[in-house]
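Your task:
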Amino acid sequence: MSTTTLAPGTEKEQPRSAPTGLSDRSRAERRLGWKLAGPAFAVMLLVTAYPILQAFYDSLFDYRLTDPANRSFTGLSNYGVVLTDQIWWTALGVTVLLTVVTVAVELVLGFALALVMVKALKAIRPVLRAAILIPYAIITVVSAFAWQFAFAIDSGFVNTWFAWLPGISADTDWFGGTWSALFVVAVAEIWKTTPFISLLLLAGLAQVPEVLQEAAKVDGATWWQRMWKVTIPNMKAAIMVALLFRTLDAFRIFDSIFIMTGGANSTETVSFLAYRQTISRLEIGLGSAVSVLLFVCVILICALFIKGFKVDLSQARGEK
């Protein structure tokens, strides 16, 4: 039985397995991140953990603030009451509708503003950025009062300015119907928070390598092709952060609803429902259950965004 040997220098190289785990740079950055953010994270955890746990504890009781002596343990029955009530599902539907519409429009407008700021002349960039950020600097309550005044029947100017459009007249009551009131709320939210989206997307545009843009131009790619194949994929992390932050903020909308509609005409959101149950009706148990369900919805939104985008931060930093 003969054996075959290989001549020196002709040994077959065994395939090397791809390195697994985090790189030294990633581990160092993770340690540094925990050192920098750890104290603030600990303080935030202490500040937020107690209210969350207290709300969950209160949701397990039939507890009215006007009759504290008759407080009784009911387990998860408050959640059953909330989830089987049509008011909860209506509020959830209004919240989801406002969130989807406002975030989608803000993403498009914010991206357009970010492109304008990137292409603007260096001399006017600071002035342009400051002007765009003015709406975001205004307090939400003040902004809501301003938009309520603009669309009011007796004192508003919207009906006068746009009376030439079909369906709009001098006596149009924008807050008299569900859809028209939600339209006003959505316009107010879009006007105020679009600058926030544009600022985050502007930071993402700054991370797109100019070399890739030039290479795509040399290859004959059109503007749309460069946008979909080069720009957007390289700013995926910035888009995820912008959408996540803004979606969480939009899902907890309260100020605009409280000022403009007061929850009337089926414009109540989940946050406003929690306020009405806890503060107006003094139903601590039911209000706490609504608050806990709102918290669960926020956690689910975070999980869906993180899993859906699948952003590789090491690749975003340029690591291999």
